[in-house]
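1st attempt posting a full record on here, be nice pls
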Amino acid sequence: MDVAPVWAGHPVGFALLTHGERQYVAFYAADRHLTVAVRTLGSDAWKFFRMPSKQPEPPRFGQRQTSAVLGWDSHNSIVMAADSVGHLHLAGNMHCNPLTYWRTREPGEIASFEQVKKMVGRDEDRCTYPLFLTLADGRLVFQYRSGQSGDGSTFLNVYDVESRSWRRLVDAAIFDGEGKRNAYPLAPVAGPDGMFHLSWVWREAADAAANHDLSYARSRDLASWEDAAGRPLALPITLATEGVIVDPVPVNGGILNGSGRIGFDSRKRPMLSYYKYDSAGHSQAYVARREGSKWNVVQLSDWDHRFELTGGGTLPKYEIHVGVVQPGTAGELRLEFSHAQKGSGVWVLDEKSLAVLRTEPARPRYPRSLWKVESKFSGMTVRYADDQGSSGEPGRRFILRWEALPANRDKPRPEPWPEPSMLRVVELRDATMPER
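the predicted structure (as tokens):
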């Protein structure tokens, strides 16, 4: 289902939210205006609201990009959520910029979006990586980084629907780089044990090679945190915090921020999947599982290739992807992977030893009919975004699909640029997905 033409010169994340009988899409239109669309499920008619925020015209090749607000910056993704009484919240178009956040006056009504320039009024001048989360009691939480790569702190705010105001979930930052580094956490994962599980790496500078020390903590309420042994952690968590390091990967060790994806085995034990350099300098895939009083780290691959992680900006290409560990048949675990040179598939692991038993073909996450690039412009790629809400119907889900050029380390591209691509909402049902 077509939504609208969108800017295709570089990738940036869009948001899809299905809430009740309505579906919302937030995106940068062809003219780069931040725009929200809404429809009633079952209808093809979209209503649009243009937000008072626009990405600056991208500087031409050879010109200097003078603003961190998106010219060619792929960090400025959009996130959207609904609170427990149906008001919409939206944040985006910021990379080390003042907080850019809106909410609706009326539940579910996009025309009532209003900009709120402050949440709590501090540590909001240089914001990046906005994320909305929902606690078990329905309260909305907002996570973001204050600062920059190599020098930043992570905060969590919680929303009160009665007063329509935000406050700190805890007074301290969750992570504090102490002016020397920053943490790159993944989104907290709600586990089968009722806990939130969180992994991160530290980075000493803007260079991707400066990532190090894969780490882990858990929490029942995102406010009180503990290590894998259940020992309480004082906030903020810093590099000196004891008991949280899973794998002490050094600087220049080949681990990427975004590594450490969390899955679970059949006993609900968290498992982290990631890649780093081995002793020979080749990039290899690993899993780590807490066993007794320590983390058991197991190498899965035996590749003779090095994915060189270096430089700043959004990387143009990720040569390796490692998925999330999931339980398989009795005594087995499954882990999807892909490698630009070595192929892709699913490793079937022995759940006890974590040894690779065999490799099977991967089940595509999206139907193959969506893979084909429609644009005739050279180098275009297909982009997807999952629904942050729910259709409420088992076996039915929605995704966004559009096309864009790959990232270019947030630097201008020479003209010509591609024509806008069509943003679409695609409905998927389990029966439409190919079997393994």
